[in-house]
Design a protein that fits this description.
The protein is an alpha+beta fold. Helix content is 23%, strand content 33%. It contains five helices and five strands. A five-stranded antiparallel sheet has the order 1-3-4-5-2. The chain starts with 14 loop residues before the first strand and ends in a 15-residue tail after the last helix.
């Protein structure tokens, strides 16, 4: 099973539709807020959200949505990455609420071979996240350094370091 892509496998204009989606629960949102010490009542306090916000309910913290989409994109985009180089832009376009399901897709915008090492290159992508009704909620662009096939072959192929099972005796 392939995880990520080599530089040669990326084509400018290609679109990768990440699957499956993820339904965001109140627990997911609260746990992420607690782990990251974001205790804003917009995310944590139903009474506050109902009485003081335009939405009338809790809004899922945006960085969770970004993190979720980034994770969804790893098998298609950065699973073989040597380095994540840059998040060029990040926009939260619309709110996400508990119970919404998030889907993502990534478009390859550009790719350039490394100027200093011939076994890698830079891939420039845009990922969009959208809800079950098609509403776009998040868009970000990033640059990832990915290996060429020669890099992978020099390090043991598709799954380097994977041990062989030993029969029980």
């Amino acid at each position: 099973m392939q995880f990520g892509r080599y530089y040669e496998e990326f084509e400018v204009g290609a679109v990768y539709k990440h699957w499956p989606g993820k339904t965001v629960t109140e627990y997911d949102d609260h746990l992420f807020c607690l782990l990251t010490m974001n205790h804003h009542p917009l995310h944590m306090d139903v009474n506050y959200a109902e009485k003081t916000t335009d939405f009338g309910k809790n809004v899922v913290v945006g960085n969770y949505i970004y993190s979720l989409l980034l994770g969804m994109s790893v098998p298609d985009v950065s699973g073989k990455a040597i380095a994540n180089l840059e998040i060029e832009s990040l926009r939260h376009v619309a709110p996400t609420f508990h119970g919404d399901t998030i889907y993502g897709e990534t478009t390859v915008l550009d790719k350039t071979p490394s100027k200093s090492k011939d076994d890698r290159g830079i891939v420039y992508v845009e990922t969009i996240g959208y809800k079950q009704d098609g509403t776009v909620v998040c868009i970000f662009r990033r640059k990832v350094m990915v290996p060429k096939q020669s890099y992978g072959e020099a390090r043991g192929g598709e799954q380097p370091g994977r041990p062989e099972p030993t029969p029980r005796g």
